[in-house]
Design goal:
Blueprint (H helix, E strand, L loop, with lengths): L1 E5 L4 H12 L3 E5 L9 H11 L3 E4 L13 H21 L3 E7 L22 H16 L3 E6 L2 E2 L6 H9 L4 E5 L3 E2 L2 E2 H12 L5 E4 L6 E2 H12 L4 E5 L19 H5 L8 H19 L1
Parallel strand pairs: 1-2, 1-3, 3-4, 4-5, 5-10, 6-9, 7-12
Antiparallel strand pairs: 8-11
Helix pairs in contact: 1-6, 2-3, 3-4, 5-7, 7-9
The chain binds NADP nicotinamide-adenine-dinucleotide phosphate (NAP).
Length: 287
């Protein structure tokens, strides 16, 4: 199976390509240099020349706070870019898998969201990602929409790398403790996506590693696993204001995923331990 993966320079796209190759699939990862998804003509030509049987769309404008101000570009990448790719996929009858986010929900209460929960994005980024979902679903029947959260992978920046960097210069850190969700390890998610794209079980899914935690819980575990003695003090979202509103409740149920016969991802603590090893391995390989 020939699969085009956008966002190859990003966290998820990189691991999806890597995982697909392990399975002997013909994986083509595109970066913004190969294909700027906001250029409609370029997208049409690239996809028509390549003729993939499936597209896993991982590229996105992901700077959540900046999106509040750079609205035009965030919309262009997340909505228009998605539309051009979907139209191209449709014209060659390729399957399509779109990556979305917990930010499509309001993020209140304490119950896990389901795929059918009310959509009410609180940030511009969340709005553009939901509009991207609508483009996919309105134009294509053979499509998957996968809502994920709190992503970490080897290729790119994420919360874990930030915490480990801060640990080098701090004895104590203040981390938000009233936002609850689930980390998602791109290595685990990539395995699932490669499996999913080879099925016809189309639809919307929520996928993250198992278990819920706050950012403060996550940070404490990161330092424990990495053998760091940094202390974590929990603070409220109000004490750490950001341009974009973050959901306080990012809990997402994985019941639909399981009911459709997919293997759920391991617990986030297991994923974290694996990731910290992966980071250590990378450092050794760089030496
Ligand atoms: N990160 C999270 O915590 C999180 C949470 C929920 C959902 N998601 C979703 O998960 C997916 C993957 O996220 P990620 O963390 O892997 O993102 P990422 O590391 O920021 O990667 C996104 C990639 O998209 C590329 N891109 C941006 N504009 C483009 C354009 N016009 N044409 C082509 N490529 C373009 C970026 O290129 P450059 O490298 O040149 O900027 C980057 O390599 C995204 O759909 C994101 O919305 C992420």
């Amino acid at each position: 199976m020939k699969i085009l993966v956008t966002g190859y320079n990003g966290q998820l796209g990189y691991d999806v390509v890597r995982e697909g190759r392990k399975h002997g699939l013909d994986m083509i990862g595109s970066t913004i240099e190969d294909l700027d998804i906001t250029n409609a003509d370029e997208v049409t030509k690239y996809v028509h020349d390549l003729k993939p049987e499936a597209i896993i769309h991982c590229a996105a404008y992901t700077a959540v706070d900046r999106a509040e101000e750079d609205r035009e570009i965030a919309w262009d990448v997340n909505v228009n870019g998605t539309k051009y790719l979907v139209e191209a996929a449709k014209s060659i009858q390729a399957k399509f898998l779109y990556i979305s986010t917990d930010y499509v929900y309001e993020g209140t209460g304490d119950q896990p969201y389901t795929e059918e929960s009310k959509i009410l994005p609180q940030s511009y980024y969340g709005l553009t990602k939901y509009e991207g979902e609508r483009v996919v679903q309105n134009l294509l029947e053979n499509s998957f929409v996968v809502r994920i959260s709190w992503v970490f992978g080897i290729n790119g920046n994420n919360f874990i790398k930030t915490m480990l960097r801060l640990a080098e210069s701090h004895k104590e850190l203040k981390v938000v403790s009233d936002q609850i969700g689930s980390p998602t390890y791109t290595h685990d998610l990539a395995k699932l996506l490669i499996n999913m794209i080879q099925t016809n079980k189309y639809g919307v899914y929520q996928v993250t590693n198992d278990g819920y935690c706050s950012w403060a819980d996550f940070a404490k575990k990161i330092f424990e696993v990495a053998g760091s003695s940094v202390k974590v003090e929990g603070i409220t979202s109000e004490e750490y204001p950001t341009l974009a509103i973050r959901p306080k409740n990012s809990r997402m149920s994985k019941q639909k995923l399981i009911a459709n016969g997919f293997e759920p991802l391991p617990h986030w603590e297991q994923a974290l331990a694996h990731y910290v090893n992966e980071l250590k391995q990378e450092v050794q390989n760089d030496r």
